[in-house]
Design goal:
- The complex is a heterodimer of chains A (about 45) and B (about 260).
- Chain A is mostly helical and about 45 residues long.
- In chain A, about 80% of the residues lie in helices and about 0% in strands.
- Chain A is rod-shaped.
- Chain B has 8 helices and no strands.
- In chain B, helix 2 packs antiparallel against helix 8 and helix 3 runs antiparallel to helix 4.
- The radius of gyration of chain B is 22 Å and the shape is globular.
- The termini of chain B are far apart.
- Classes of the chains: A mainly alpha (about 45), B mainly alpha (about 260).
- The interface between A and B is medium-sized, with 28 and 42 residues.
């Protein structure tokens, strides 16, 4: 591969950005579930 | 005689209202989300491995064609995400449904990030093929305008103390911005652009070899499922956070009255 840096950078971005969002959203969901379970008995969904 | 009658709403509207109920949405999305994430990761992994290690190089572009397997899905999702934003905006303005408002607010940052990746991967593809990181041609400029529209939507939704006013303003901006979508699609036909015309269309056979097309279909479907999973998960978190805020406000109000 003669253009490896361009290809590698593209794939890092394309995989990294969805991964960043997926991890961030999972943490946000987990925090919201825990908080909801504390203040609302119906919060366990 | 009382001539008033109770008329049931049409079936599609009833169905929409049923699934737009926040409680119903939480239950349904909880079941769908693992499948969306699982199938998205699987299809993306197949497409990426196939594209990187098994698909042939292009006779003209050489190995840089491998950037296509990530650039094209993000370009498609930049526009498709905006169409989803516009649909949420219509639902928000007509039915004033809070779930549509929340979905639109959660879609904005994901759409903006995916559009930014589309622009960045396009730039990384452009440098070795065109010899330039960026040119102000019609396709690149119209996608950049799309990115600015996403940013404008994010800013407007958060600009008001009353969230409902922010959602309305964002919905109006999103609908005005729809005019940019046909400009993006047809820019390569209407103007003489450095960007190549579409290789895949709905009306004709693709002008791309099958050995390059298959991994592209896998990555496109995979990233689309991941985009949907991220948006559904963010909306789910948004619904829960809104419920937390409402419960806390109710508790504060009770405490101040007693």
């Amino acid at each position: 591969m003669t253009h490896l840096p361009y290809i590698a950078a593209s794939y890092v971005l394309a995989i990294g950005v969805p991964l960043f969002f997926a991890i961030g959203t999972t943490l946000r969901l987990r925090a919201a579930k825990q908080r909801l379970a504390l203040i609302d008995p119906r919060g366990k969904r | 005689m009382d001539t008033r009658q109770t008329v049931a709403p049409p079936r599609p509207v009833k169905l929409f209202h049923r699934f737009a109920n926040p409680g119903q949405f939480l239950r349904l999305s909880g079941r769908v989300l693992p499948w969306l994430y699982g199938s998205g990761v699987l299809l993306t992994a197949i497409g990426v491995i196939w594209g990187l290690f098994f698909a042939p190089d292009d006779w003209q572009q050489g190995d840089t064609v491998k950037i296509m397997y990530v650039h094209v899905p993000f370009a498609w999702l930049a526009s498709a995400g905006y169409v989803s934003l516009a649909i949420c905006s219509v639902l928000s303005l007509i039915w004033r449904h809070p779930l549509a408002d929340l979905a639109a607010a959660e879609l904005g940052p994901v759409g903006a990030a995916f559009t930014a990746v589309c622009l960045a991967t396009g730039s990384l593809w452009g440098k070795p093929t065109w010899g330039a990181w960026w040119v102000w041609d019609a396709r690149l400029t119209s996608v950049f305008v799309l990115f600015l529209l996403y940013l404008g939507h994010i800013a407007l939704v958060r600009a008001f103390d009353d969230p409902t006013r922010g959602y309305r303003a964002g919905a109006i901006l999103a609908l005005v911005g729809v005019i940019n979508l046909p400009i993006i699609k047809f820019s390569v036909n209407w103007w003489n652009t450095l960007h190549q015309p579409a290789s895949i269309g709905l009306t004709g056979a693709p002008t791309i070899a099958a050995s390059l097309l298959w991994p592209l279909l896998f990555t496109t479907l995979g990233f689309t499922l991941l985009f949907a999973a991220i948006t559904v998960a963010r909306t789910r978190a948004g619904v829960m956070e809104r419920r937390i805020r409402m419960l806390l406000m109710a508790k504060t109000s009770e405490a101040s009255q007693s």
